[in-house]
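Notebook p. 47: complex prediction with adenosine-5'-triphosphate.
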Amino acid sequence: MTPTTAPSAAPEAVPAVRLDHVGKEFNGSHAVHDLCLDIAPGEFFSLLGPSGCGKTTTLRMIGGFADPTEGAVLLSGEDVTSLPPNKRNVNTVFQSYALFDHLSVADNIAFGLKRKGVPKAEIRERVGAMVDLVQLGGMAERKPRTLSGGQRQRVALARALVNRPAVLLLDEPLAALDLKLRRQMQVELKQIQREVGITFVFVTHDQDEALTMSDRVAVMNGGRVEQCGTPEDVYERPESRFVAAFMGTSNLVGGVFRDGAVHLDGGPALPVGPRPGIAEGSAVDVSIRPEKIWLSDFEPGMPVVNGVIRETVYSGPTTTYLIELAPGVTVAALEQNTARARMEDRWAGGETVELAYDPEHALVLSH
Amino acid sequence: MALRTPVRTERPAPAKNVGGRGRRPRPSAAGARIWTWLTLPGTVWMSVFFIASLLLVAAISFGTTDQLGDPRFGTDLGNLKALADPAYRDVMVRSLGYALLTSVICLLIAYPVAYAVALHAGRFKNALIAAIVVPFFANYLVRMYGWSVLLSDDGPVLQLLRAVGLADDHTKILNTGFGVIAGLVYGFVVFMIIPLYAAMERMDTALIEAGRDLYGGPLRTFLFVTVPATRQGAAAGMVLVFLPAMGDFVSAQFMGGPNQIMIGNLIQDKFFEGQDWPLGSALTMALMAVLLLAMFGYLRRTRKDEAEATR
Amino acid sequence: MNPTAPPPRPRRRRGQRRRPVFAIAVTVVFFVLLYLPIAMVVLFSFNAQKSLTIFKGFSLRWYEAFFHDSVLLGSLGMSLEVSLVAMLGSVVLGVALALGLVRNKGRLGAYAGLIMMVPLITPEIVTGVASLLLFKGLGVTLNSGTVMIAEITFSISYVTVILRSRVAALNPEVEEAAMDLGATRWQALRLVTLPALLPAILASAVLIFALVFDDFVLAYFTTGVDPQPLAVRIYSAIRFGVEPTINAVGTLMLAGSITLIGLALAIPRLFGRRGGLDLISGE
Ligand SMILES: Nc1ncnc2c1ncn2[C@@H]1O[C@H](COP(=O)(O)OP(=O)(O)OP(=O)(O)O)[C@@H](O)[C@H]1O
Ligand SMILES: [Mg+2]
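Predicted complex, structure tokens below:
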């Protein structure tokens, strides 16, 4: 699945959410540090990062559940930093769903509309439409306790969406679901977002989820945004060691940059082409994704290095080889087990092979 | 019983200067002030009607009485000195003895009962524990009165004992120290059963089976496995029985005679018959002091236990 | 039979523990002695004669006597009134205190958490003396109002202890969800938090009603002369000459409080929640 709606963000458009040097301190330590983000209207924006990096805290500051200790939160250009949650045109899907157990599904969904004083007939109509949208027909009168995890998740979503907020905040909404249901809900969620056209700010620590669903992703680490861009940007062109390591598997090899190549310690040099931003003789890391390493059918002009197969890991559609380039320097390479590749074509441990890659795929990250 | 309150120290950090809009404190978006407003009424109420009144008791115990018998504030140490008077001292020692004996007897009763109910009652467990708790909520006086009728000189219990030759015509229960203790035990044994029962429920029954392998006999297993494993429940029960037993005055009145009065009876007397409120207050303070000591000892013990458990 | 074969060992049945005969015997005696005094009161409330030791046939005369005794009826009315007011007052203050206590992480919360524990470890006689001194010190005439205040003071702690663990167990996100959907803090409290706490609130209300109705010591220290709460009347009656009417009153009170405590235990189940006994063991 590829994101079809590119952010319709003309640069001068007012961002749906703007975090302006936002920080949050708990007992003297920063959970979120000097955060600046612009999220365009209609965008599916993900906050991705390891546990404890401040994703929830960021979301809670947008929602109004936590007061930033520094900076300002702007929604559609308006400073809402000191507005309580009920005065913000934002709704949240909580990780625990936070359904009202004493109310029926329909009353849960109607809760926000009732607070706003929407006429009864309109409430009934909108709740009905929402129940259909999230495919909960026939369950409107049940109590949340009697629903399955996936159904409760839909109630939480419907309860937030029915208010037609400018921004919907979702805190790991799929984390409690099993893998299969999660995949299904990912697709549904994305479809719903396209249908209603609401800005989604989506928190997850699952990088697959972030990559498949988002228009843009902000990778967070230790309370800071390490990199922010399209899924392709952050996956293909990580700007830091952390992002490269966090997004999928990546071969990270240390060395010294000289003459358009990275010289590994006691090993071969990996040609990477000219890098204007990198100083001659500086210590760097090279990052190459395992699937970007070729073991056969090289194209002309590709740099080639020799290595020794140390291990072969077969996993269905792909086979991963662990290849030693120099003592202590091992990289992984991924081969598709396509129709053309036969069993006996696979390398065995100890064999010497040639590796090739496109220098463009070798990212050089200075320390 | 949650005797210790976890004290959280986290406080919302003060809002700092935001967006260059001056140093004016910003209203908190999260609006935590409501919790203060909810806490205040109850806290003020308790402070006035409970804490302040206890302080008043302490103050009056240094006071004197005027000619009309009304209490006056003062700095008189006479009441506290009077506590050392043998007449009062004996009553206090007796109360302490009765309350301690009551706790021990409750423990001896509660262990087998809690054991049988917690580990051998099967699906009747909840029903049985409810059957123990429910009468406790029945009126204390009525229960005590029924108990005194039961143990009276020609009541069913003594008649039965006489019939089987365990008692003669002169055996009495009422108007003896034993009678008072019987009353206290009847009144408060449930406070011992509940924590012990809870401790036994938590206990891993595999422990008992292991104990059987290790020590063999059920008695040795009970002594070396069950008792140590439920020690904390027993300690909590001891305190929970000791506190009300020490302050009771109904049992001594219904079950005892003039020679069995307890400190509670003295206090009652000073306030309702003798009209010597300062002395009554001093006695109350003495009672409170004993109880606080017991409480303090208990807390120190559980702290030590916990410290050892985490080592 | 082959003489060299080892004798078959008696097989120990695993998992079937021997019944602890001694413990069960003690338990049986315990239950008999627990209920016998109550049974005596009930039995003699139906005695046809005035005797308190010999049962001479069934009659309802003592119940009749009670319902014609205007003093006792006045006491009953006062006790009901005091219990009702104390129940309402302590539930309102106690629930608010429990909510504030759990969420209030400052010094106020710590102080409140401390002082609400003190009444639970203070014998009633001390509380009684203290209340009496306070009311006298303030120059207040003792009447049903003073009893109510003292009973509320004593009951707040129970309500707070029962509610506190329930409040702590609530998911704070639910309240946030309500605010997220446009509710103010108060609305969130009223529309979401209180309904979630309703079973515990009702159970503690019933429990407090029963406790206050039965309470003697505090009422004794804080009541005026006329009317006096039923428990105080019973006390005087037992102390200064027992009339069989007392058995009838006692039986009615037993029936009342056992019904109420049963109700308190059943309420959480009526709401489809687990258990009710932890209500009591929470003390
Ligand atoms: N109320 C709080 N008090 C103190 N520290 C907090 C509080 N809430 C969060 N933190 C700290 O702030 C940091 C960021 O927490 P946050 O919940 O935002 O992480 P997260 O990225 O959502 O992690 P996860 O993926 O595990 O949900 C953590 O180190 C956490 O311990
Ligand atoms: Mg989180």
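Notes: Residues 88-303 of chain B form a domain with the MetI-like fold fold (CATH 1.10.3720.10). The radius of gyration of chain B is 26 Å.
Next step: compare against the earlier run before touching the bench.
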